[in-house]
Design a protein that fits this description.
Blueprint: H1 6-17, H2 21-24, E1 29-33, E2 37-41, E3 46-49, E4 53-58, E5 61-75, E6 79-92
Antiparallel strand pairs: 1-2, 2-6, 3-4, 4-5, 5-6
Length: 93
Amino acid sequence: MPFMNKNKLKNRFSSVLDIPRDVMLDLPKLTIIGDIQIYIENHRGIIEYTSALVRLSTSLGQLIIKGENLVLRNISVEEIYIEGRIQEVGFGR
């Protein structure tokens, strides 16, 4: 069997063992409700926080959330819940 990169191997294990890919690959999972709430799992910490911008560290680089009146409602080691008027969500490196 030829050499398989780490992510492909994890992807296969995820399929065979029926484990969600976001868990197996340590990917951030975003749940967005309209333009008023966002719930982020598997983050690696807060880089910057203002009422108009939240930047989080993730395995894919930075997760950037822009909006108005952004408030961190709940923060734990792996999860963050943000409320406010969410206008833009994206990844940066």
